[in-house]
Design brief:
Largest sheet: 4 strands, antiparallel
Strand order of the largest sheet: 3-2-6-5
Distance between the termini: 78 Å
Number of helices: 6
Structural class: alpha+beta
Order of helices and strands: HHHHHHEEEEEE
Low-confidence stretches: 1-8, 102-129, 160-164
Radius of gyration: 22 Å
Number of domains: 2
Mean pLDDT: 74
Shape: elongated
């Protein structure tokens, strides 16, 4: 009888976690349909493997968070109420991510020139996916906490290619031009057109050195 009671209690916890996880999945589906699905359909090659891994980790964490919230409120026994508990925390996190990652502002003339050159040359040299500078961890971090449409636009603007904006060693600059604007470069007096990385409120961002 004791073993049967423990088995029943274990099953009830599993059921509560599953219902909470289902609730945690609902905000993700809403965000996917309204924000994240379009860039995947329109140009999935603009997102790196690390971006997709980061997005997958985000989904997993939010689902687990929904299930955990259901377990922490063990006094709630109604299935619909448990699903509502699972929705709450993931919905807040999803809203924060979507609200904190606005679409990149209109490009300045200098950045527009770089983007045009990047797009034209990258079509000739890149494979099925965009290759960006930075570590896999950087790309995973971006996918974990950034809207996919913003990430899509950012990656397009800084696509790495040997033929894209060859560095001009005779000219140097101290600004790192990114999809979010110009920032002070970490290393000063770098060849214009060379790749750079800066930390912004949106996370690590890649760009090109300009004057």
């Amino acid at each position: 009888m004791v073993e049967a009671s423990k088995w029943g209690d274990s099953m009830s916890r599993l059921a509560a976690f599953s219902l909470g996880a289902l609730g945690g999945l609902l905000p993700i589906l809403v965000s996917l349909l309204t924000v994240d699905l379009a860039p995947i359909i329109d140009d999935h090659s603009a997102l790196t493997l690390g971006n997709y891994l980061g997005y997958g980790i985000r989904v997993f964490v939010l689902v687990v968070l929904g299930g955990t919230m259901a377990l922490l409120n063990g006094e709630v026994t109604q299935p619909f109420s448990i699903v509502q508990l699972g929705i709450a925390a993931p919905a807040l996190v999803t809203s924060f991510i979507n609200g904190a990652s606005p679409t990149a502002p209109p490009a300045s003339p200098t950045h527009a020139f770089l983007s045009v050159v990047s797009s034209a040359n990258a079509q000739e040299t890149r494979g099925p996916g965009i290759q960006l500078a930075g570590t896999l961890f950087d790309h995973i971090s971006a996918g974990l906490g950034t809207r996919l449409d913003t990430l899509n636009n950012t990656n397009k603007g800084v696509a790495k290619s040997d033929a894209v904006q060859s560095p001009d060693k005779a000219s140097t600059g101290n600004k790192c031009m990114t999809a979010y604007g110009a920032f002070d470069a970490v290393d000063k007096d770098q060849p214009t057109g060379s790749q750079c990385t800066v930390s912004t409120p949106k996370g690590t961002t890649f760009g090109y050195i300009t004057k």
